[in-house]
Structures are given as structure tokens and as C-alpha cells.
Amino acid sequence: MAHGSCLCGAVHFSAELPTKWVAHCHCNYCRRAHGAPFVTWAGFLDHQFAIDADSEQPAWYESSPGAKRGFCSRCGSPMFFQSTRWPGEMHVARALFADPLDKEPSAHVFYESHVEWLDIKDDLPKKVSTAPPP
Length: 134
Known about the structure:
This protein is mainly beta. It has one helix at residues 28-34, and strands at 2-5, 12-15, 21-25, 39-45, 49-51, 59-64, 67-71, 78-83, 89-93, 108-109. It is globular, with a radius of gyration of 14 Å. The mean pLDDT is 95. It holds the Pfam family GFA.
């Protein structure tokens, strides 16, 4: 079991291991939502993930048709992503976990949208996908 929370601690969650995958996303939506050159997501099946019973519920924003992003309404931390493109999955921002996960990032996805000012020199696959427009 791995636990995590937003910056202020109002929204906290638990995820049952194993993770389905961990990857760095470079899509325009993730970059803009997080204010970062990419976001590292950990994917879980819905039944592996839960907002803790004593936690505040995240607020949700529909960032594109069929896709929504969860965030803390107190501190604004971007936290979760769900999409009809990946049904039955909860994507959780990797940096929010206080506990270690069982997998390291395995790829860069939507790499065609990566920022030019960050030189990525790891050996992970750089996958090009059909990213939705910004």
C-alpha cells in the first residue's frame, strides 16, 4: 500500500500496489495543468485506488472531452487524471506519494509535445502519440 496527499494535506489517498505503469507525460495539458515541463504519472486500476475516508474530496475539472483532472480545492495541488481513453484507471501524480512505489518510470509519452529547453538524456523510450490539441 502506498499513501500520499496534496501540499496542504486536505486530500489524502491510498493506492494498492502493484502499479499498472509509471511514465513521464509531456502533453500540453499536463504541462499547463502542473506548470512543469512534464508530469510523472503512476497508473492504477480504479479498484486499487481510494480517497481516504477522513479526507476532503478533490475538485474536478474537465480539461478536454472525456478527460478530467482532480485537484485540491484548498491548496490547488494538481493530483489526479481520468479519461475515457483509459477506462477503469486512475492516474496519480507520482510526486504526491510519501511511500515508495514498485515501479520506476518506463517511458516518456506524448514526446512530440516536449519543451525544447529541457534536454532529456535518459535511456527511456520516447513515445510519440497523437496528442489532443492544447
